[in-house]
Amino acid sequence: MEAPLSTWPWNNLGSFKYLLYGPLLAKWLYSRYQEDNIKETWCLHVLIICLLRCSMHHTWNSFSSMLFLTRNRRINKDGVGFKQIDNEWDWDNFILLHGIMGSLVFYMLKDLINLPLWDFKGFLAVAILHIAISEPLYYFLHKRFHGSYLFNHYHSLHHSSPVLQPFTAGHATLLEHIILAAVMGIPILGTCFMGCGSITMIYGYILIFDCLRCLGHSNFEIIPHQLFQAFPLLKYLLYTPTYHSLHHTEMGTNYCLFMPLFDALGNTLNPKSWEMHTKFSVESGKNGRVPDFVFLAHVVDLTSAMHVPFLFRSFGSKPFSTRLFLLPLLPIAFVVMLVMWAYSKVFLNTFYNLRGRLHQTWVVPRFGFQYFLPFAAEGINNQIEQAILRADRLGVKVISLAALNKNEALNGGGTLFVNKHPNLKVRVVHGNTLTAAVILKEIPEDVTEAFLSGATSKLGRVIALYLCRRQVRVLMLTSSTERFQKIQKEAPAEYQKYLVQVTKYEAARNCKTWIVGKWITPREQSYAPKGTHFHQFVVPPILSFRRDCTYGDLAAMRLPEDVQGLGSCEYTMERGVVHACHAGGVVHSLEGWTHHEVGAIDVDRIDLVWEAAMKHGLKPVSSLKKTD
Q: What's the pLDDT at 627?
C-alpha cells in the first residue's frame, strides 16, 4: 500500500496535466479583457514564475549535459541512462504543485496583489528569514526524512537516481514538495507581512532558490576551489555540487539546504567535502579518461540538430521525429548552423560504457546539405582529419566514420586520411562491412533474384558480389557498362553470369526483392510487383508509398544488453539501437583488430564481421515494416 501523499494526483494525466494551468490563464484573460481594472495580475505572475522555473531547470540541465564543456568537471563519470530519464520524466510536477499552492495563497490574501515592484528592504528581510528559518527547518526535516520509515516510503525516490542532474532536484514525492513549498514560502510571506515585500523580491528569491538547487544537482564542479581559499568562511555559507553529491553517495552527511554551516553545527558535515571539492576543481583543467572507441557523426538537418540530448533530454531519449514545438526554433537553429560553419570544431556529444570500455560520439559541425557543396569539401575533410589526429594523440583505439563523413567522393571512404597519415595508431573504420552484412543477412535464403539500385556504389558493389556467390541473380541498375563490367570481373568466373546489367526500373517488374541504394520516387516504386520488400541503404530512407509492399529501415544493430549510461537515441533509431556503421566500429574495437577498414569493402570479411558481432552480443534489428 502506498504511503499517504507519496504519489501525484495527476499521475495518470500524462501531458494533459499542463491543462491544470488553464484556470490561471483563463482568470488572467478574463480580468484583462472583461474587468475595468486589472486586479488579477497575480495569475499572470504565477504563470510567468512557473515558466521561468521550468526554463531555469532546462538551462541548467542543458549546461550540465554539454559534455564538450563539462566532461572534465563531472563528479560522477557515469552516463544518465534511459531508466533514470524515464523515472525523472515528470520532474516538473513540483512546479505545477507550487503554482497551485501559490495561487491559493494569493487568492486568500488579496492584499498581496498590490505589492510594489521594488523594495530594497525586502531583499534583506527575505535573506534573514531564509537563514534564520528556512535553512535550519530544511536541515531538521531532511535529516528526519533519512529515518527508516520516511526514507523508505518517500525520500528513497529522490535518491534512486544514480547520476545527479538538475532535473533530479524535482524528482521527489508530493509530500516532500509540499514541505519544500513551505520552506520557500515562509521567507516570502514573512517579508510581505513585515510590509517590505515586492514583486521583484518574490521573483528573485524563487529563482535564486531554484538556481542553487540546480547547482547542487548539476554533477559538475563549477565553483573554483580558489574562492574558498581566498574567503575560508564562504565554504560554510554556500554548498557546492561536490558537497551535495557526497550526500547522495555517502548518506548520513551533508543534509543542508544551501549552507554547510548547519551541517557543521549538527555534526553531520562530511569531512571529505572540501578535499573532494578541491580535487575536482583542480582536475577540471586536465583531460579525463581516454575513450576506447569514437563514432564520428555529423548533423543531418536543422530539425534533427535539435535532437541532441543537451537541448531537450526527453526528446533526445526517443527516436527522432519532427515535432511542432521544433518549428519556432528553426530560425535559431539556422543561426547556430552558420556560427558552427564559421567557428565550431568537432565536439563531444554523447557517451556510454560497454564492458569497461568508454565509447563516445563526436560530431563534425556540418549539416547534410553542406557535404554536397563543392567548395565545402576541403573544410569538411579538415574537420574529419583533425578529429582523427586528435583521437590518435589521445590514444583512442578505433574511430568510426558515420554516413557522409566517409563519402567516396569526399575522401574515398576514409582512404584519404590513412594514406596521408600512414603512422596512425588509431584505427580508422567506415563500418560498411557490417552494414553490408546486416542487409545481406536480412535477405531470405530462398531468394533467387534481387533488384539492386545504387549498384556500383561501395555497398552496392559488395552486395552484388556476395549475392552472386549465393547464386542469386542480381539485376544491377546502372547506365555505366564500364562500371558494371568492372564489378562483374571481380566475381569468380562461375558466378559472373548471375550479375545482370539493367538500365530501367521496368526490368524489375517481376522481382519481389528490391535492394535500394539510391533514392527512388513513388513512380519508380510502382514498377515493383505486389508483395515486394524494399531493403535499403539510402539516406534519407525512401517514402513508404506502396501499401501492398513492405519497407525495411536503414541497417542497424542493437547494442549488447550490458551497455551502461546510454540515454539518447541515434537519430531515428530505437533506444539501444545504432546504425550498422557505428556497430561496425564497436565490433572492430571489441575484437582488437589492428587494420584500418577504409575504401572498398572486402567481400570475404562479411561473414567474419557478422560472426564477431553475434559473438559480442550485438543483435540485428528486424527491418520488416508494412505500410498501413
A: 44
